[in-house]
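Quick one before lunch.
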Amino acid sequence: MGLEIKDVATTPFTDQKPGTSGLRRSVKQFSQPGYLENFIQSIFNTLPMERRNMLVVGGDGRYFNRQAAATTIAMAVANGFSRIIVGCGALLSTPAVSSLIRSRRADGGIVLSASHNPGGINGDFGIKFNTANGGPAPDTVSEEIFRNSRQLTRYFIAPQVQVNINLPGEFSFADSVVEVVDPVADYRQTLEHVFDFDRLREGFAKGRLSVRFDAMHAITGPYARELLEDCLGACSGSVVNAEPREDFGGQHPDPNLGNAKTLVGFMAAKTAPLLGAASDGDGDRNLILGRQFFVTPSDSLAVIAEHANAIPQFRAGLAGVARSMPTSRAVDRVAAAKGIDCFETPTGWKFFSNLFDAGKISLCGEESFGTGGDHLREKDGLWTVLVWLSILAETGESVSALVQRLWHHHGRFVYSRHDFDHLDTDQAAAMMMYLSGFAANAKRTHIKDRQIVAADVFRYIDPVDHGESHNQGIRLFLDDDVRLVYRLSGTGTAGATLRIYIENYLRDNVNVDARQFNRGNGQLAADIARIEHFTGVCAPSLVT
Ligand code: VG1
Ligand code: CO
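Model of the cobalt (II) ion complex:
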């Protein structure tokens, strides 16, 4: 008897538009009958039959991950994929998916994750689709998926396809094979190619390197254990909270100073390891700490660019670098000093892929705790940890000394982000509308004792395919080297989140407390946008 393929009638959902990074909704919304199936079918519909050879599937272990993986596999078989590669336990970090797609030459991958959003039954779930280059679907593909989702009338599923995904193995169903793989092995190989593991091992063995990594009960636990402890010889116990849990142990795996308080406390001791780090739900973000020292992601990117020669992957030199627009301009200074290009892209990793594929950049990053290189097409949390360890091994300096030296050479962009969560969507939209009108006429306007020297709504033309992305955030440049950026988040699942990015350039006397120092400019930014008037909210919910 052949394999039964069920053709299921369905009605479209109107809200399946992917945001900054995939489709994110509450678990409750995702649990509606057909919601998951419709979106998966809409993804498959954008792939012609000849591009349905190999698909990678895995997620960050959050609530609903296993169930969603089982459905995705049964639908992939029904939709004619000949090989479906899935991580054991349905686990794969986002960078591991990117790595598998590239090394196995798959046609794409599905990441079951809402990344840094909270997990658990009352939390969020999400789906990201990555294309054959290993990178997040570009906007053109996401739009096509969305178009499909609004017209969808049927989806296909093979109900007999049920596999034991707890151990590596292969399962055949008619013309399809489901291959269950060790989630770490391929990713580990990728990193072995781009780092000098012997050098790092020696650093740990001789006591010149030490690390504390907090996996926050999310996906990076098994990866960090294997790489840092088993492979590089970091002492046992260096990796904490290493078991992925469906509710992330009740924590919020968005690695910032607020959510990683225990790690920050641990790193405050004089005897703390040289490097402290954490990652997010799906393993693509990183938090970097030294002893009693926090490295902003923007400065981290600049330090990595400065010390690129310490990383075997970049020994031939950096082709160029890129940062998302709201990321501080610290890396621009390093790039200028090195005489290489620095590209400014809209928020979201998908905008870096073309630059990588065209060989225009080797390294890039975002202020939102993301850095990555040309080894993959996703930001990569553990890679960044190994990058910092390589720099520490090469220079013999401390984390704080490296950042201080960056500031000394290039000046410091004192950086803060103010988030206003749970705003009313219409009110937030009205505020942004007001602000873009303001920006259009803001040049040479005086606000209190300051002057706006330039203002615009950021628009990006991709240098490779010339695709245009409009309305990517509002920028105000003040006469005293201050930049204010405003944009609405595209990853939240309830109401609107306004992000204000504040940066203030200091050439000298750089040792200030960023939070204190930017407070006045934060208030100015809120006043300019008339946030209280439009939304009734007078203070940010989170300052990072
Ligand atoms: C946020 C960050 C952005 C990042 C995105 C996905 O988006 O600002 O820089 O690329 O999350 O990260 P937004 O639209 O909420 O500002 V992840 O690790 O959640 O996939
Ligand atoms: Co993430």
